[in-house]
Amino acid sequence: MINTQRFVCNMLEENTYVVSDETREAVIIDCGAFYEEERLAIVNYIKDKKLNLVALINTHAHIDHCYGNDTIFKAFGIRPVVHREDQVLYNMLRQQANDFCGIVYTNDIPAVDKYIGDNEILKFGNHQLTSIHTPGHTPGSILLYCESEHLCFSGDTLFRFSIGRTDFPGGSFEDMTKSLQIIAELPENTVVLPGHGEQTTIREELEMNPYLR
User: Where does residue 206 rank: exposed (0-12), middle (13-18), buried (19+ CB within 10 A)?
Assistant: First the structure.
């Protein structure tokens, strides 16, 4: 059984997820921890629960989802996994911090551990996550789908009754429309944990989200 702990982080209220199972192996999805108390809370949670962290996965390479990558690297020696189509964005994280948040970001930015593609399997403990390429918000946006638990981490592609913006550099509404068609084909009982805001289900989104009707 999967356990998911959410941490709401940084000035943009991004959702960071620490996901573990009965083996105590764990992954972090989108570590956006910016403030020191956020960074400490995540590190202490992992240590207090005696979790063995095996991966840090970025659903896309926007700065608000990557602020805490340096903390995870320093504390656990884990570098991020990113879709290969977001390589350019990842290399622009400092510029993004200035452009999006108006700050000079001086923290270290760990190199990417590996770039992944569509339909790749990321294993931890007795579970696995499948990366599904869902461009639109960024060229390399992915969602992470755990079929056995009917669980989907949607990044900034799908929100509760809404979708991610497509007007940032690299965004595409046409690509987003195609990605939403892929998401709409997931089982209706799938729980969706987005990059911002509260969780939802595919059934609720098919009924209430104007972009999926």
Answer: middle
Instruction: Give the SS3 label for residue 37.
Output: helix
Among the listed residues 22, 20, 16, 15, the one whose alpha carbon sits nearest the alpha carbon of residue 3: 20
Number of domains in the chain: 1
> Which residues are CB-contacts of 96 (< 8 A; sequence separation ≥ 6)?
62, 63, 89
For 71-92, how does the pLDDT look when each residue is reduced to its tens digit (9 = 90+)? 999 999 999 999 999 999 999 9
The answer for residues whose C-beta is within 8 angstroms of residue 75's C-beta and 6 or more apart is 43, 46
Residue 188 amino acid letter = E
> Residue 213 falls within a domain, yes or no?
no
- 14 DSSP β-pair partners: 9, 196
Decide: 27 and 125 in contact? Cβ < 8 Å.
no
Residue 182, classed as helix, strand or coil, is helix
Q: Which domain holds residue 125?
A: 3-208
